[in-house]
Every structure is written in structure tokens, then in C-alpha cells.
Amino acid sequence: MGIKTNIIDLANFKNLSEDTIKEKMLKAIEQINKGEVIAFPTETVYGLGANAFNETAVEKIFKIKGRPADNPLIVHVCSIKQAESIIDFNDFIYKNNNNKNTETIRDENQNKKDNINFQFLSKKVLLDRFQKAQSLWPGPISFIFPAKKDKIPSIVRGGLSTIAIRLPDHLLAQVLIKNSFPLAAPSANISGKPSCTNSIDVINDFNGKISYVIDGGHSVYGIESTVVDCTSIIPTILRPGFITQEDLYPIFSDIEYSDALNYNIIEKDGSLKSSPKSPGMKYTHYKPEAKVVLLGKNEDKYFLSNIAKSSSKKIYMMKPLDFSFDINNNEPFKNLKNKKILILKHSDLFDPLFEIIERFSSDTKIINFLDSYSFAQKFYALFRQADRENREYIFIEPYGFSGFELAIMNRLQKAMDEIWTF
Questions:
Q1: Which of 24, 35, 298, 377 has its CA 20 to 30 A from that of 161?
Q2: How many DSSP H helices and E strands does the chain contain?
Q3: How far apart are the C-alpha atoms of 353 and 333, rounded to whole Å?
Q4: Has domain 291-421 been given CATH number 3.40.50?
């Protein structure tokens, strides 16, 4: 028999005092203090949280979520002081593979054994970067620093010597952490599935598996936090989010994207100079049951080809659309016959394609978005809704490939099955 899952309704939290919020959360706070797992809202997506200092509690997150054990978690804190308490500001050793975005390690003996070149980040550099990071907190951004390994268990760090830390800009999350512990928390969804941006979707994934879900309404941003590595030679964006490289330049003037996110690294023939490996690419993420197809223009084919290669997914480069062709003899159109389809669009660019789809599908639903921000807020929930409606295909007209729109593309890249260009 499973656990009874209770909902704490705080969707109207903006009208409540902090004391009232705490009182309504008391049972969830008690569960965290007992080493249990609960779900809570943040401004990005909902999180599945447990006491970050309690290894046994954190192990439950991995078991409940079905998360691979080598996938590190973000530790959510309620203050700068709390963040400082889990960072090791001593000189930091990192492995230099002639790549600015290298994995950080601390074993100098291994250096001698394997003849690997190690370099250092000084305490002064780490303190300077932490000072700069503070100006962006609270907010939808996580920073990676050396971890105090005696405080943060290995399972939270994914076996690394670093830890990602975030101070969420959400009153419910802050009150929860303030009255319990720093929370190790991935997104509150079954591993590989779309993240949850509302409490109903959280319950659909974890009913009977966790004791409490705190309902804080719909997430403000709808995609996960930006992640910046402050332990590489230069500050490096490992995961794009609402806070962009352009936003970060005034604070970290030398900040760059990791090579894994630079899909423009191509030779003249369109081949990759290096294989992009974006964070989390080792595993499938954000994936609905429906087949996800990204649409693009042939003029962007090299960029889109790199995205397809980095994900080992198919790309179909097609001629301009022709209403008269026979769908039964055209790959991949023939697979659409009598299928239930969802279309997410923001312009009329691909309307000829959508008219063809409507002719041959059994049920086509079209949703038009005004801008990329409203799309980001809603697309995870729409993925889940499509699965509930047994839709077999989701066609998406992407936005751009820079700034905040790159963050959306990063998620769609991991969710997609195919790219079609015209």
C-alpha cells in the first residue's frame, strides 16, 4: 500500500504572511526533518526535495524519481550565509584537458599517476566569483562551486567535488528551507519525463510515493534554472535558462557557453568540430510519450543538423511544401495518416505543412503562442496534456537560437525525436 499524498493548498500565498505560510506548511516541514521527500514549488519548475545533509533522505529522491545515481542535484538554500556554509573556498584543483569546460576533481595523486596536467583556482578567484553570484540571487540561476564534502554527501554531488547551489526567488520555497534544511532537489517528475510546472502534474507522477505536495500555483518561468560553473578556468554556462549570457556579461565579463551548447561549431561542410554534450545529455530528458518533431528552415540546416547529431536523432531535409503530393508515398509524411496530432506554433511560416497535416490526421489541435516566454511557461504542461489525450505526434515551430530562446531549444533538443526542414 502506497503513502497517502496530501496537498497543501498555498496557490494564493502572495496574500498570506510568512507566519501563516509556515503554519500551513508545518506537516511538510516535519516530513523533511524526519528525512522524507516532499514536492514544492519554485519560480522555475516544481522540485522534489529532501534534507541535503541526509544521505538516506536524498537516496529516496533517486529511488522515487528513478534518477540515475551519477546525476548530481542542485542544493536549494534560503540565504547567502547558508550557501557560504556549504562551499569550500580553499584553492581548488581542476583537471586541464586543454578545454576550458573540464570536469573538476581534487585528487593530486591521480594527477601523478595518469600524467594529467592540473591547475588551480585560487581562493581569491572563488571568493570574487561568489561575490558576483550573490548579485543574481534570489533568482532562476544556479552556481557551481567546490563543495564542503564533509557536509554535502557524495550522492548529492554525483560523486564530484563540486556542488550546484541556488537561492530560489519563491516565498514558499524560502519559508520551507528556512524552517528545515537546505534542500537537495531535482525537478519533480519521473526521470526522463517533462518537468512539472503545476501541482496536478506532480501528483500524477508521485501520488502514493510522497506524503506532501505544496501547491503554489503555476511556475512563473516554466523551465529549469540557468547553471553556471564557477570552477572552470572562466565562468561557463552549462545549462541555459531564463537568465542569459547577455544578462550575465555585466557581471561575468568573460562568461561563455560550454562547447556542448555551441551548436555553431561546424566546419564548412557542416560537420562538427567536436561532439556537443550538453548537461544531462547522458540521459533522456523532458520526453513525452508522443513523438516530438521540430520544424526548421533549410537555411538553418547546418545548425539544426548539429543539434540532430548531438542527440543522435533523424533530420529530414525536404523540398518546399507542395499541396498536391501523395502522402502515402512520401517519407515521413505517410506516418501521419490517421494520427492524433498537437501543433505548437507562433507564426504562419509552416501553415502549408499544418494544412497538409490536418488533411490526413484523425485529430489535429493547434495552439498559437504570442511569444517565447508564454511558450516556455506552458510547453511542459502541454506535453503532458498531449499524452493524456493520447496524441501520437507533437509538431513544434521553434523560436530562435540565442538568448532565452536557446534555453527553450536546449529542452526541445532533449525531448525531440526528429527535425524536419523545408
A1: 35
A2: 13, 19
A3: 10
A4: yes
